[in-house]
């Protein structure tokens, strides 16, 4: 008898997030599931790892088909602990999410959801990060679940190149409102910060991070932001070789 | 009279780190310096941003040639706060470091030093992260300072493409032991985790992250790990478009 697939699930919204529950429901059809997720929200934690404190794990579920562990650490800590301490073997698939909110364009750099997926890629696991463009806790994941299932099937069928993971973003809407899937490149843009400066009761300043997204190429139809704006699910393949080969050629001409 | 350059300095080892002091000494020759650095060590914080707590700033130096602010936040928070709240205008240069320890190869993904430099690149500032391959607090920065100065001069002269920053790593050694500078690509490799599992006095498990680096291509002479092993300073140009164009072509063939 063929061994059942082993699927690692994590996220950055924390183990209690409805998006994680939705993702577990989808992947349960594909194999045995192990959830290793942060105890608390780790939004914006990017690829951070915990080195100054030790990590702690608490068991939340322990059945053959579903195990769940909560980690007091970052999403990347969860992946590393899973690989090294909690899984009996290398998983066949790593999925992260479903994130409450977009991780399109440059948000991939800040995202804990994508930090975990990228870590999976580095560790040569087929890895996908899923995000729904709805920050609310009672977001409707029904269409997202259908697309998530479809994309996972394709990744299991076709595989991914070594070191690559997928950044999947899903627009808000019912199934009939979403126009399909687009394979995209990462939109060129950045977050423009606008700190909200306040005074505490002791007259000391403090700052809350806020901001808005600036898109350098809103008309580019091959980008993830364009796809999402036009009601498509976007898939961007992400690599972990950050070398700019274009700038590398230029540097070689320098007198250095 | 030409306005003096404005140079933003940050790091991930914290505002008290000797490596930061060494970097400030170097850049003071190039213009007015504003340091915005974390109060405490933020090693391994990657591109993390603080969204769940507000940020606080304390002034450490306030002269025309040198201002210094300590931030209770991550290296990327420091860059964002500097840009939005603390600097009078966009800086002409951002430098991060000099880190105590290597950020070569895939360590760029986990590094707070490089998180700050990458954030500078995203914000269209000429940005460089510097790291010395010596973790000790009393590391000798004398040769590192000479190379740092040389590289900064070249970046100010030639500029960098939009969105690009440099990842500079410097081997341990005196000037005569370092063989020069190599322009490199990021080495293909990963960190193999080995958690140190311990029991606390109450018999509860806890885990410390440890590990070692696996190099997939130790013989490749165009990589940063090779350069460093052979006593060269390595420069890898880093981009923030993480799209894998190779995998993108493959995905377009999928039946999805």
CATH topology of chain A: Stationary-phase Survival Protein Sure Homolog, Chain: A
Structurally, the number of domains of chain A stands at 1
Give a short account of the largest sheet of chain A: 9 strands, mixed
Widest sheet of chain A: strand order? 3-4-2-1-5-6-7-13-8
Query: Helicity range of the residues of chain A?
Result: 25-40%
The CATH architecture name of chain A reads: 3-Layer(aba) Sandwich
Order of helical and strand elements of chain A: EHEEEHEHHEHEEEEEEHEH
CATH top level class name of chain A = Alpha Beta
Provide the fold topology.
Two copies of one chain form a homodimer.
Chain A: E1 6-10, H1 18-27, E2 32-38, E3 57-62, E4 66-71, H2 75-86, E5 93-100, H3 107-110, H4 112-122, E6 127-132, H5 142-158, E7 165-170, E8 181-183, E9 189-193, E10 196-199, E11 205-208, E12 211-215, H6 224-229, E13 233-238, H7 245-251
Parallel strand pairs in A: 1-2, 1-5, 2-4, 5-6, 6-7, 8-13
Antiparallel strand pairs in A: 3-4, 7-13, 9-12, 10-11
Helix pairs in contact in A: 1-5, 2-4
């Amino acid at each position: 008898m063929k061994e059942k697939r082993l699927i690692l699930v994590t996220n950055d919204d924390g183990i209690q997030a409805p998006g994680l529950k939705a993702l577990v429901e989808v992947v349960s059809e594909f194999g045995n599931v192990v959830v290793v997720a942060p105890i608390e929200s780790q939004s914006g934690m990017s690829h951070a790892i915990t080195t100054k404190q030790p990590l702690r794990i608490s068991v939340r579920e322990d059945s053959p088909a579903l195990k769940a562990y909560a980690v007091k650490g970052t999403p990347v800590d969860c992946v590393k602990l899973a690989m090294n301490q909690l899984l009996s073997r290398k998983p066949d698939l790593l999925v992260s999410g479903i994130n409450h909110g977009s991780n399109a364009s440059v948000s991939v750099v800040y995202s804990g959801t994508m930090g975990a997926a990228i870590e999976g890629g580095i560790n040569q696991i087929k890895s996908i990060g899923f995000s729904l463009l709805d920050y609310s806790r009672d977001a409707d994941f029904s269409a997202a679940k259908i697309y998530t299932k479809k994309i996972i099937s394709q990744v299991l069928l076709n595989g991914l190149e070594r070191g690559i993971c997928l950044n999947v973003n899903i627009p808000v809407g019912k199934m009939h409102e979403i126009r399909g899937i687009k394979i995209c490149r990462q939109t060129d843009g950045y977050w423009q910060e606008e700190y909200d400066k306040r005074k505490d009761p002791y007259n000391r300043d403090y700052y809350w991070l806020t901001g808005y997204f600036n898109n350098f190429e809103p008309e580019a139809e091959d980008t993830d932001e364009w796809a999402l704006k036009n009601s498509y699910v976007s898939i961007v393949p992400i690599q972990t070789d950050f070398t700019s080969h274009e700038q590398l050629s230029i540097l070689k001409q320098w007198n250095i």
